Amino acid sequence: MRKAQLIEQTPKALVQRTGERAKARRLALGLTREVLAERAGVSVDTLRRFESTGQIAFERLVRIAVALNVSPSLDDLFPAVTVERLEDLERAAPARQRGVRRDASAAVRAKLVRVGLRGGATGGPK
């Protein structure tokens, strides 16, 4: 399957396909579930569930990938970003937007008004 086709699939379909591909790799290597599970340090039930549904914790997925000798492929999940000029990186980054920071004393006064220890608009005691 090509990368463009993978991008168009739903996350659920990608998860399912990953389990199927792991099973195909295991069978191509002539490994039983028991042998692969032992090499990967996972239970046979975990491996069975992963191969049939694709559902698995990420650390266990990595263990299986190492046991199947496909761990270098994991680097393709999040390829490194290469930047030749700092200006390119700055231009690509979205501008950060922050909320308005209120003056701390104004926040304290507002809280005192809410709890009734200070008057509203006049600022004097109730």
How would you characterize this protein structure?
By secondary structure, the chain is mainly alpha-helical. The protein has helices spanning 3-8, 11-28, 33-40, 44-53, 58-67, 86-92, 104-115. It is elongated.
Keywords summarizing the entry:
56% helix; elongated; 434 Repressor (Amino-terminal Domain); 0% strand
What's this model, at a glance?
This protein has helices spanning 3-8, 11-28, 33-40, 44-53, 58-67, 86-92, 104-115. By secondary structure, it is mainly alpha-helical. α2 (11-28) packs across α4.
Mean pLDDT metric:
82
| Helix and strand composition category | mainly alpha
- What kind of sheet is the major sheet? none
Question: What is the succession of H and E elements?
Answer: HHHHHHH
CATH architecture of the domain at 3-76: Orthogonal Bundle
Please give the number of β-strands: 0
Topology:
Blueprint: H1 3-8, H2 11-28, H3 33-40, H4 44-53, H5 58-67, H6 86-92, H7 104-115
Helix pairs in contact: 2-4, 3-4, 3-5
